[in-house]
Amino acid sequence: MSSHDVGEHRTLFVPDGLAGERVDAAMARMLGLSRTRSAELISRGLVRLDGAEVGKSDRVLPGGVLEVTIPVESDPLDVVPEVVEGIGILHDDDSIVVIDKPVGVAVHPSPGWSGPTVVGHLAGAGFRIATSGASERQGIVQRLDVGTSGVMVIAKSEHAYSVLKDAFRERTVDKIYHALVQGHPDPLEGTVDAPIARHPGADHRFAVREGGRPSVTHYETLEAHRFASLLEIHLETGRTHQIRVHMSALRHPCVGDLTYGADPTIARRFGVTRQWLHAVRLGFEHPDTGAHVSFESPYPDDLARSLEAVREAT
After folding, report:
1. How far apart are CA 222 and CA 307, in angstroms?
2. Is 224 within 8 Å of 233 (Cβ atoms)?
3. Same domain membership, residue 60 and residue 123
4. Residues 164, 181 within the same domain
5. In the predicted model, what is the mean pLDDT of residues 158-185?
């Protein structure tokens, strides 16, 4: 097979025993594939019967010539080394690297994601990362949503990985976010202590639910404007989508967070195209020196512009 081929090509002669079978069933039998996979290859135009395109419910005759191209599918969990524009390096030493993650970048590969990743960027930029954890998430001790920007730390050494993993687990890491939320929370500062679990009706969403994982969010209002408030949020726990779920539960979703009930009209008015949520500060004990270190990330341009628009709105 040449390097230009898109996959493996197979030419098969239909045996007498499969006469009259549907093409997808015959393919599954001859190639050891599932019916679903066979049907998918047919629908992608990768199967020909006697030189012509074929439908999955067409029938095969003995002696028919079935030509199948089986594409090489990359593993969705493979780390693809690829330098990602916009990832800033805030700090780098032998044990940790602290980055400023832009929006639209996932922390590590996952089955539903084919875009750029932090892990892929670090591999592409020549960083050596701790080998603990599954291969696609080596060195990852915390996560930020694809749609959330800001500061995060990655462990480069085994020692740093275990120390930081424990620090996050024991809640000794200062995780400070700024969020622009609709309306004005009442009280202006407070704590949301409400368990979070997967949303019963949607795979990719979470919700406050009895029996969920304990989740604690502290917030205070920094600025109150006519349409929205800028909050400083301190995460005690670190559940997936925690701030977004808790703010939505308070009826003050992050501006632009349409997944969790934000008003699209307000988002459009202020030019917000994603949830207005940014990890501004991260503080922890350095795994090697034990000294307290803190790193900050300024607002990205899009969030800064929309905040300015909210400040000016009357």
Report:
1. 12
2. no
3. no
4. no
5. 96
Domain end point (choices 148, 169, 190): 169
Cα distance from N-terminal residue to C-terminal residue, the chain: 66
Task: Check residue 4 and give its pLDDT.
Answer: 39
Beta strands in 60-119 (DSSP E): 65-71, 88-92, 96-101
Structure tokens at 224: 């109150």
The two structure tokens encoding residue 180: 């622009």
Cα dist from 162 to 32, 92, 95, 287, whole Å: 43, 18, 11, 9
Residue 192 vs residue 37, higher pLDDT: 192
Domain count for the chain, please give it. 3
User: In sequence order, what are the residues at sequence separation of 6 or more whose Cβ sits closer than 8 angstroms to the Cβ of residue 185?
Assistant: 219, 221, 229, 231, 250, 252
- Which pLDDT value is given to residue 71? 80
Residue 1 has pLDDT above 70, yes or no: no
Domain end position, chosen among 145, 169, 193:
169
Res 112 pLDDT > 80:
no
- The pLDDT confidence band at residue 110, using thresholds 50, 70 and 90, is confident
β pairing state of 149-155 and 277-285: parallel
pTM: 0.76
Please check whether residues 191 and 302 belong to one and the same domain. yes
Task: State residue 314's pLDDT score.
Answer: 65
Please state, in angstroms and rounded to a whole number, the distance separating the CA atoms of residues 221 and 269: 22
Question: Is it the case that residue 5 has pLDDT exceeding 60?
Answer: no
| pLDDT greater than 90 at residue 35 | no
Domain membership of residue 91 (yes or no) is: yes
Residue 307 DSSP code: H
* Active-site amino acid positions: 145
**Element (H or E) spanning 299, and its range?**
none
Task: Residue 37: give the domain boundaries.
Answer: 7-71
Which tokens sit at 96?
């940790």
Measured in degrees and rounded to the nearest 5, phi and psi for residue 206 equal: -125, 165
Query: Is there a contact between 312 and 228 (Cβ–Cβ < 8 Å)?
Result: no
